[in-house]
Amino acid sequence: MFYHVKELQYNAKPSSPDPVYAKKLQEILGGQYGEMSVMMQYLFQGWNCRAESKYKDMLLDIATEEIAHVEMIATMIAQLLDGAPAHDQEQGAKDPAVEAVLGGMNPQHAIVNGLGAQPNDSVGFPWTARYTIASGNLLADFRANLNAESQGRLQVCRLYEMTTDPGVRDMLSFLIARDTMHQNQWMAAIEELEKTQGAVVPSSFNQEYEKQEVSYSFMNYSEGEESSTGRWASGPTLDGQANFEYVQAPKAMGQKPQLAPAPNYIHGTPPLEMRLMQGANKMEPQSGQSFLQ
Q1: Considering only CA atoms, which of 146, 139, 133, 143 is closest in space to residue 197?
Q2: Residue 98's pLDDT is what?
Q3: What positions does the entry give for Ca(2+) binding (predicted)?
Q4: Cβ 206 vs Cβ 199: under 8 Å
């Protein structure tokens, strides 16, 4: 069960309207790595959690906080649009470079949303649940969560650099700090799970069934050998099961693919022999006819 507190988790008050910046801010609301994505990702991971109760509780703790972040950013966008009629689109994009890249204010903020936020990214692409991951394997999910928080923090930091509004920066500095905590949180949870589950997902699959001769081979499939100096190319593997092997110019190990002809009802291109035969049949005269007729 959820309940709503009228006060925001943290202040979301710009110093002045800025409809162009409101468009940019949509990215961390409804973009792939925005607050809506992590909110839904953590909620479904929590609701679907079948592991120890501490993981379910932790997931729903952070998921509920992300709902608060969605509210904060939506509120900030709405206030950035205050007093911003449609003609401010041109005023907000007087800089030709800004106009070329951003096209000024998002007209849907005025036309569709009545000077409010929308569940879209900064170019108007609708948020989609396909951005979210909830696999049921907590180690796999927590690694996805770490990636989401890393990308999210990166985008918020970039947005911080794109404004001088002290009110906007104040809210973004709070979100950046929370993303710092959340990255640390997922790293701690990953470390804890790896101690019992191992480093490779899923740990429950019997490794005898995989092609073990290539399990730890780094294969160089591009020009140059700079990659050979990386941690991934030599020394003990991170799962502690073997040593990395570096393979320069690996040879192909598979067959040359040759597909069987498709059945007639597919009407594909038949093999050459069949095409020649079909051509010859077309050239044969029908009964009672000759080529001279």
Answers
A1: 139
A2: 47
A3: 57, 61, 220, 222, 224
A4: no
Binding-site positions for Mn(2+) read: 35, 66, 69, 149, 182
Q: Which of 58, 24, 53, 21 is nearest to 43 (CA)?
A: 58
CA distance 84 to 130: 33
Question: Is the domain of 55 the same as that of 188?
Answer: yes
Q: What is the pTM assigned to this prediction?
A: 0.84
3-state secondary structure (DSSP) of residue 209? helix
Q: Extract the annotated binding site.
A: 35, 57, 61, 66, 69, 149, 182, 220, 222, 224
Q: What is the pLDDT of residues 129-167, one digit of tens each?
A: 999 999 999 999 999 999 999 999 999 999 999 999 999
Q: Which pLDDT score, from 0 to 100, does residue 90 have?
A: 55
d(CA 263, CA 189): 53
| Residue 129, in any domain of the structure | yes
Q: Which two tokens stand for residue 191?
A: 């470390």
- Residue ranges for the known binding site for Ca(2+) are 57, 61, 220, 222, 224
Radius of gyration from C-alpha coordinates of the chain: 29
- DSSP, collapsed to helix, strand or coil, labels residue 1 as coil
Q: Would you say residue 253 has pLDDT above 60? A: yes
Q: Are residues 146 and 31 in the same domain?
A: yes
Q: Which residue has the tokens 């609708």?
A: 126
- How many domains are contained in the chain? 2
The CA distance from 283 to 96, in Å, is: 68
Determine the longest span between alpha carbons in the chain, in angstroms. 95
